[in-house]
Amino acid sequence: MRRLNTLLVAGIGFALLAGNAAAWGPKARKAITYAALQVIRQDFPDVFKAEISNYETDLFRGAEDGYSVVKESLAIEKDSQAIIAIAHEIQLLRAVREDGAGSYFAYRNGVLAGLIADTILPHGIAYLPSDAELKVRIDTDLESQLDELRAVRTAGRTVFLHNVSQYFREQRLFFADDSKMIRDDYKRGRGGSGLLGEAAQGYFSRSVEAVVNAWYTILTTTVSAKDVLPSPPILTEYSVNEIGYLLDVKENFKQANRAYRVFSRVNNGRGKPYEIVGDLSY
User: Fold this and answer.
1) Is residue 80 a contact partner of residue 124, using CB atoms and an 8 Å limit?
2) Phi first, then psi: what are they for 6, rounded to 5°?
3) Where are the beta strands (DSSP E) in 10-114?
4) Helix 103-120 crosses helix 232-248 at what angle (to 10 degrees)?
5) Per-residue pLDDT of the chain (282 residues; tens, 9 = 90+)
6) Residue 46: helix, strand or coil by DSSP?
């Protein structure tokens, strides 16, 4: 494990990461992902790229899409479920890594980064329709600070997450209190000049650090006592989505055919997934 006193500043990447003008929305999730990528490459220099391919575009596309991808398969209706979804994604990506780390693998690691960033930030996910307006206001106020945020880690280590739930409890010790205070600031008219403005730097840094540790856990070949092999239906769903991504987004039929071989193995003869893949191919 590598001791890092200071993470790379995220500001240098903003010009490269044009996107939707929302803070912990697409633009900020990409910025967090960019900063995390600079750090993880100190341990894994070639991650999210191959000899003739670079999958950074897929990584950032996943960060932009964020938790909306995961919630298609897992219920994310409250914070505890968001953390469960993070743990689920880490285990899944650890498992599928063995079958190759191409464009869709990079995309799903970006999705995970977006989910983590939104989970670290109070009101980062609007679970109820009534919260949507507050989130928009928070996003707008954070956007005005984004160029000033730096991802700084003081005397921290990149760690393997043996217990994801415990790790995120520690990262969000004051999450409930912060959420209440931020909501109260907006009710009183202080908005982003209250706690949100004071704590934005910390939320940004913790988001980057958590993404780095999640990726480190996925990429490290260490066997964990808590490793649970995803079920065949879950692996099949991932393979189906990978084929769809390669056909629809990448238009890469060669890679889709390779993914189909993995799909045939993990699906184990179930009929419905074959119908879905057939429709995708058509």
Assistant:
1) no
2) -140, 130
3) none
4) 110
5) 443 433 444 433 433 333 332 347 678 889 999 999 999 999 999 999 887 789 999 999 999 998 889 888 888 999 999 999 999 999 999 999 988 789 999 999 999 999 999 999 999 998 888 899 999 999 888 888 888 888 776 546 899 999 999 999 999 999 999 999 999 999 999 998 999 999 999 999 999 999 999 999 999 987 766 677 899 999 999 999 999 999 999 999 999 999 999 999 999 888 888 889 888 887
6) coil
Within 8 A by CB and 6+ apart from 101, the residues are 47, 48
Report which DSSP code applies to 156. Answer: E
Residue 65 near residue 57, CB atoms below 8 Å: no
Residue type, 114: G
Whether the pTM exceeds 0.85: the reply is yes
Write the CB contacts of 83 (distance below 8 Å, at least 6 apart in sequence): 119, 164, 165, 168
Q: How remote is the C-alpha of 117 from its chain's centroid?
A: 7
Phi/psi-derived region of residue 147, left when phi > 0, alpha when psi is between -120 and 50, beta in every other case? alpha
Please check whether residue 102 is in contact with residue 124, taking contact to mean a CB–CB distance below 8 angstroms: no
Query: Residue 130 is encoded by which pair of tokens?
Result: 């009534």
